[in-house]
Amino acid sequence: xxxxxxxxxxxIISLVGIGFSVALTIYFYNLGVFKDMQSLRGLVxxxxxxxxxxxxxxxxxxxxxxxxxxxxxxxxxxxxxxPYAGFLYNYIGITVGSLIIFLLARRYxxxxxxxxxxxxxxTKYSGWLANEKRFERLFALAIFLPVxxxxxxxxxxxxxxxxxxxxxxxxxxxxxxxxxxYSLALIYGxxxxxxxxx
Length: 198
Known about the structure:
By secondary structure, the protein is mainly alpha-helical. The protein is built from nine helices and no strands. The chain has helices at residues 3-31, 37-44, 50-64, 70-81, 83-114, 119-126, 132-144, 150-157, 164-197.
C-alpha cells in the first residue's frame, strides 16, 4: 500500500470518526443529558459497567464538540458517582478528549479551530503562539488552573511545535488538580450559595 492510499484511508477514518462523534453528540443532546441532571443520571446511573463508560464517552464528546461548559458535566460526574469514582471518570474522559482535540487541530489547522471557538477567543490567545517556550509555560499553568479556557488552548497548542508526548505529559500531570478544584468549586460553591439564598 503506497503513501497516498494509506493517507486517503486515514482521512476517511478521521471523517467517519468525526461524523460518528457528531451523531452521538446530537443523540445525547436530544436525550437531554447536556441540559438536565436527571436525564444524565438516568442514562449513566443504572449500570455499574455501562454507566461509567457512557459518562466517559460524554465527557470526551463535550471536550471535542463543546456544547456545554465542561465544569457542569465535571460536577455531574462527582454528584452521580461520588468524589473518587467521579474524579477518575472525569479525568479519563477529559484527558482523552484533550488529546483528541490536539491531534485534530494539528491535522486540520486554523480553519478547524475557528469552527469550534470564536474569533474573539482565538485573537485573545493567538499572541501566546508567538513565543513557543512562553506558550508552553503559560499553557501548562492554564491547564493546571480551573478557570482557563482549556479546550481553546488545547486546540491552539496544535498550531505550535510542541510534541504530542510533551503535550500529553502536561495534560496528564496538570489536569487532575484543575478537575479536582472545579468539582469542589461547583459542588460546594453551589451548596453555599443555596444556603445563602434559601
